[in-house]
């Protein structure tokens, strides 16, 4: 048994652990500053100034908010199911963090003679893994809402869960059309196909639009934030939560936003590919590490654009009514994505049979 | 139905056309509007760093005035208290003792002078009623406080600094410098 | 004992323990959550067998969708230990007998199976990978696959018919 343990490539394990730590830290910091950015974006859209007291441009505001959440009193309602009540936010956070494991953050770096790919796990079912984890994300909401033993929370939890399940369907169908073009489920392969080629968004504009709308719904963002509708359900599933448990729910939402932006950038906008630059020749001329750094920056820039779009939409479009939401999901997006799928399949078939057009 | 005025606008409630049903043009329009607001001027003023100038007729916090030699002008005649519609002013008079001529201008002065800023409506009638030009309303306002007691301003808070010993503070309270 | 075996044993223990907890739990919501744990453990087994596609689809479909609907119903019905209806004594006896009979059938069927000859080929068995699985499904088993998809289609049509307003 000891021999087996010795046979494990410890350098590999070590580099993966470091990578995981870095990715987790980065997502947490990004989520922190997303809260700041959200308030700033809301402010500038509404002709206000936003947080500007704590530090320059209010940049320390998230730290102050985090400190406030940690210092607040931890309340667990008497009539709640204590174990599940504590488990809910943890689960929401866990599933939010897990998605980032399959996203390639850059091609690879060379350190101390080792080639380290900037991706935690390049599994050949990358997209399906993301879907699996996202479908697990429902439980954080559902368990939290039910364990609060509050009717508003329960209603919100059920709303949120049914919304996520409904939109997952259209999301999956819109992805199938993309997968017909890529022929692979691995995110790394999908990016490599897009490198120095036309991004998939130009082949799949409708698919991208459907995916985008579904991503909004999956993240519980406005206009689909029915599970935390404050004017009809008080605060939704996290009504009974206080202190950092509430913070976890809010944080999970922002991490979800970050990760779904990363997924959209990866699938439709070339991921870490630097636009208008031939990555391979750049890497040969300027060194692999610089290339990897620039690629990561490029991906983060794409993500930032998407995150801004998320916020922009939030402060523009009002919330859907619940029947409108279900109507859009089941009667519009699913047929649309089915049509998109059939048309894409037809064209792919034509191309495979050497019909040039 | 006959319209009552010529400003009536009739709302047409016809079903949405296909283009309107898509909602996408409407959403794009809305998004464009919110985006254009990013580049608009912000009307907000960063308050403690930048203050808006008060109008010269602004009626703010009261000040008990002194004359050029630093003597209190108030004689505790009580006209301000009578004039006050909110009954915010109370005072206690005292007689000036020999040797206090440098402190009080008249023979009688206010030993205690209190204004309840929670009652005060800042109408400025006390200022108008004062025959000695002893009270006037400055261009500041009462800062927040944690207790109700903190809003009852006594003589320490109301009296203007002595022009002889603290000329700068006096000028500032008078509004002579900006 | 390699890492694979350690994982296998711990996953098996987890799966069996969770399965028992599903039956034993008084609170139906806890039962559902334990059932989700069972699905996770089984997905872990699939990954050990190098069947990643099956593992993740198991999670998406069962743990992600079907169990959520289960949870829906149970949460809305507000079942708990106090409102649990008293079960008929004969029903219990019938349950024990039928369960025992099923166990007997399983034992009889699996007693003579030579397990050694059918060990899953972990090292070389790449049929579970999505590429090979797709080829197998759409070449060798295309007719049964399409027929099952018609079954799903009919279920969808049925749902639409039920959901349609009169």
How would you describe what is shown here?
The complex is a heterotrimer of chains A (357), B (178) and C (166). With 357 residues, chain A is mainly α. Chain A has one domain. In chain A, α4 packs antiparallel against α5, α6 runs antiparallel to α8 and α10 packs across α12. Chain A is globular. Chain B has a domain of 113 residues: Alpha-Beta Plaits (2-Layer Sandwich), CATH 3.30.70.3270. Chain B has a three-stranded antiparallel β-sheet with strand order 2-3-5. Chain B is elongated. Chain C has two domains: 81 residues, NADH-ubiquinone/plastoquinone oxidoreductase chain 6, subunit NuoJ (Four Helix Bundle (Hemerythrin (Met), subunit A), Up-down Bundle); 36 residues. Helices cover 75% and strands 0% of the residues of chain C. Chains A and C meet through α5 and α6 of A and α2 and α3 of C.
**Major beta sheet, strand line-up of chain A:** 1-2
> Stretches of chain A where pLDDT falls below 50 for ≥5 residues?
none
Strand content of chain C: under 5%
Judged by helices, strands and strand pairing, the structural class of chain A is: mainly alpha
Instruction: Indicate the overall shape of chain C.
Output: globular
Q: State which percent range the strand residues of chain A make up.
A: under 5%
User: Helicity of chain A, in percent?
Assistant: 55-70%
Number of domains of chain C: 2
Overall radius of gyration of chain A: 22 Å
| Count of β-strands of chain A | 2
One letter per element, helices H and strands E, the order of chain C comes to HHHHHH
Uncertain stretches of chain C: none
How many strands of chain C? 0
Mean pLDDT of chain C: 82
How large is the radius of gyration of chain C? 20 Å
Q: Can you summarize the main beta sheet of chain A?
A: 2 strands, antiparallel
Structural class of chain C: mainly alpha
Helical segment tally of chain C? Answer: 6
- The assembly state of the depicted protein chains is heterotrimer
């Amino acid at each position: 048994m000891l021999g087996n343990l010795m046979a494990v490539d410890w350098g590999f394990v070590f580099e993966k652990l470091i990578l995981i730590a870095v990715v987790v830290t980065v997502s947490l910091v990004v989520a922190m500053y997303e809260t700041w950015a959200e308030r700033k974006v809301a402010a500038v859209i509404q002709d206000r100034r936003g947080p500007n007291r704590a530090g320059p441009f209010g940049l320390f505001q998230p730290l102050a908010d985090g400190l406030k959440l940690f210092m607040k009193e931890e309340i667990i309602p008497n009539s709640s199911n204590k174990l599940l009540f504590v488990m809910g936010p943890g689960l929401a956070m866990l599933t939010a963090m897990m998605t980032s494991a399959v996203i390639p953050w850059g091609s690879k770096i060379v350190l101390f003679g080792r080639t380290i790919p900037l991706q935690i796990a390049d599994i050949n079912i990358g997209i399906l893994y993301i879907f699996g984890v996202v479908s697990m994300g429902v439980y954080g909401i559902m368990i939290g809402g039910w364990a609060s033993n509050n009717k508003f929370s329960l209603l919100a939890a059920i709303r949120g869960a049914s919304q996520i399940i409904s939109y997952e369907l259209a999301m999956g169908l819109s992805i199938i059309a993309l997968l017909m073009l890529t022929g692979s489920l691995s995110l790394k392969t999908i990016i490599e196909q897009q490198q120095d080629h036309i991004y998939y968004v130009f082949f799949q504009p409708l698919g991208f639009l459907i995916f985008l709308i579904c991503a909004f719904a999956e993240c519980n963002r406005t206009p689909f934030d029915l599970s935390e509708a404050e004017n009809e359900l008080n605060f939704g599933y996290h009504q009974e939560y206080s202190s950092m448990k509430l913070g976890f729910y809010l944080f999970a939402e922002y991490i979800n936003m970050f990760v779904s932006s990363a997924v959209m950038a990866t699938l439709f906008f070339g991921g870490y590919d630097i636009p208008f630059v031939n990555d391979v020749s750049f890497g040969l001329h300027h060194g692999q590490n610089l290339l990897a750094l620039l690629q990561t920056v490029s991906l983060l820039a794409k993500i930032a654009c998407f995150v801004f779009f998320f916020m922009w939409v939030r402060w523009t479009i009002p919330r859907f009514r619940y029947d409108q939401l279900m109507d859009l999901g089941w009667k519009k997006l699913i047929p649309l994505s089915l049509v998109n799928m059939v048309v894409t399949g037809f064209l792919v078939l034509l191309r495979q049979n050497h019909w040039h057009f | 139905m006959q319209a009552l005025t010529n400003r009536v606008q009739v709302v047409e409630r016809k079903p949405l056309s296909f283009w309107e049903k898509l909602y996408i043009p409407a959403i794009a329009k809305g998004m464009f509007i919110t985006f254009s607001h990013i580049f608009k001027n912000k009307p907000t003023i960063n308050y403690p760093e930048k203050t808006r100038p008060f109008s010269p007729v602004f009626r703010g916090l009261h000040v008990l005035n002194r004359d050029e030699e630093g003597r209190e002008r108030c004689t505790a005649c009580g006209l301000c208290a009578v004039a006050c519609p909110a009954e915010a002013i109370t005072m206690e008079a005292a007689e000036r003792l020999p040797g206090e001529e440098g402190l009080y201008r008249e023979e009688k002065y206010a030993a205690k002078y209190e204004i309840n800023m929670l009652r005060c409506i800042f109408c400025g009638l006390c200022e108008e009623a004062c025959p000695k030009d002893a009270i006037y309303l400055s261009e500041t306002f009462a800062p927040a406080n944690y207790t109700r007691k903190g809003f009852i301003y006594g003589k320490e808070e109301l009296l203007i600094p002595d022009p002889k010993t603290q000329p700068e503070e006096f000028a500032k309270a008078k509004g002579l410098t900006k | 004992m390699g890492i694979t075996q350690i994982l296998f044993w711990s996953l098996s223990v987890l799966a069996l323990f969770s399965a028992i907890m599903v039956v034993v739990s008084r609170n139906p919501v806890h039962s559902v959550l334990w059932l989700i744990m069972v699905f996770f453990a089984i997905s872990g087994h699939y990954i050990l067998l190098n069947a990643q596609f099956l593992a993740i689809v198991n999670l998406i479909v069962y743990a992600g969708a079907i169990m959520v609907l289960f949870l829906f119903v149970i949460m809305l019905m507000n079942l708990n230990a106090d409102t649990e209806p008293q079960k008929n004594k004969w029903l219990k006896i019938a349950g024990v007998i039928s369960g025992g009979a099923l166990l007997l059938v399983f034992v009889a069927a699996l007693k003579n199976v030579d397990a050694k000859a059918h060990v899953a080929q972990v090292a070389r068995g790449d049929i579970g990978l999505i590429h090979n699985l797709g080829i197998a499904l759409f070449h060798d088993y295309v007719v049964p696959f399409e027929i099952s998809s018609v079954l799903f289609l009919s279920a969808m049509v049925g749902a639409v018919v039920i959901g349609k307003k009169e």
